[in-house]
Amino acid sequence: MLETIYPSLFRKVQGINYERERITTPDSDFLDLDWLTQGSKKLVIISHGLEGNSDRSYMRGMAKIFYAHGYDSLAWNYRGCSGEMNRQLRFYHSGATDDLDYIVQHAILRGYDEINLVGFSLGGNLTLKYLGEQADRLNSKVKKSVVFSVPLHLRSSCEKISESSNWIYSQRFLQSLKKKVLDKSEIMPEIDRKPLKKIKTLIEFDNIYTAPLHGYHDAFDYYEQCSAIHFLSNIQRPTLVVNALNDPFLSKDCYPNSMSNSTYISFEYPERGGHVGFAQFNKNGLYWSELRALQSIQSL
Fold first, then answer.
1. Which of 120, 121, 206, 290 has its CA 20 to 30 A from that of 157?
2. In a domain, 18, yes or no
3. Residue 83, Cβ density class (10 Å: 0-12 exposed, 13-18 middle, ≥19 buried)
């Protein structure tokens, strides 16, 4: 658990000065994109985890290492995650690949020749689902992906994070999500805030809010339709999935033995790393996950 907690609470990544761009989505909402640019033709698009944002240390660290090695970096914020409530009734969720696709298309229009995807936790699931959905339709400028701490099977992972040993973390996520519902209900009275007091778990939250707001029958329907595990076999870009064996939030279903029918996907299960941790203490301040992502994507 320490390997999960320490980076989240104590790591500071200096020397990052994002340039923010706000783009309008096809449904008249907005997405806030944070860029590190240097005129490169190569780009890495980085997707954050549940209730994260572009300013989390794991996002800043990943953006920084790629920028230092000649890439432009784009750390994007999901709807409602950039510090300002989004305009539409919907929020973000583990399968909202329409927004990721819109980000990719936006990057293509900016003239990049090479686009790579990096995702953490929920953002890893989102990335893999997107790649699997696109399959052979994916733009040829999208080259590789690397994802970390991915809840490939959403239902069992949600049950895992709801165990008593993860109570502090699950309640932290839950309180943050509840606050967003309260904030949105102030401007959208059609959102019923009354059930919030009774919600004790993330599954209950997904059942009452996430699923119906995004067109799913219930939480389990949402988990089933959005779990990346169902999309892996369709992926047609070199993809590395890294899940630490001591990740407290991942179920056993998040560690597939192999994808024997796929030449594109590789799995790595390091003994240590926690959830979105992978800390290592060295003079340059780089984390193992950042070095591993750079190494994988540079091996084109």
1. 290
2. yes
3. exposed
DSSP 50: T
pLDDT digits (tens, 9 = 90+) for 126-171: 999 999 999 999 999 999 999 999 999 999 999 999 999 999 999 9
The answer to whether residue 162 sits within a structural domain is: no
Torsions phi, psi of 143, nearest 5? -105, -50
Q: Does residue 77 form part of some domain?
A: yes
User: Per DSSP, what are the bridge partners of residue 22?
Assistant: 32
Give the DSSP letter string of 117-159.
Answer: EEEETHHHHHHHHHHHHHGGGS-TTEEEEEEES--SSHHHHHH
Q: Which CATH number fits the domain that encloses residue 44?
A: 3.40.50.1820
Share of the chain above pLDDT 70, in %: 94
pLDDT value at residue 105 = 98
Q: What does the block give as tokens for 295? A: 């190494």
Helix (H) or strand (E) holding 59: helix 57-68
Phi/psi of residue 253, nearest 5 degrees? -75, -5
- Parent domain of 242: 2-154+229-298
The amino acid sitting at 225 is Q
Could you identify the residue written with the tokens 């995650």?
81
Neighbouring C-beta atoms of residue 258, cutoff 10 Å: 9
How many domains in the chain? 1
pLDDT at site 6: 47
Q: Report the pLDDT averaged over residues 40-61.
A: 97
* Torsion angle in degrees (nearest 10) through CA of 85, 86, 89, 94: -100
**Three-state secondary-structure class, residue 104:** helix
Q: CA torsion angle for 201, 162, 123, 97 (degrees, to 10)?
A: -50
Write the CB contacts of 125 (distance below 8 Å, at least 6 apart in sequence). 94, 95, 119, 147, 150, 151, 152, 154, 226, 227, 228
Three-state DSSP at 125 gives helix
> What does the pLDDT read at residue 283?
55
So what's the pLDDT on residue 282?
67
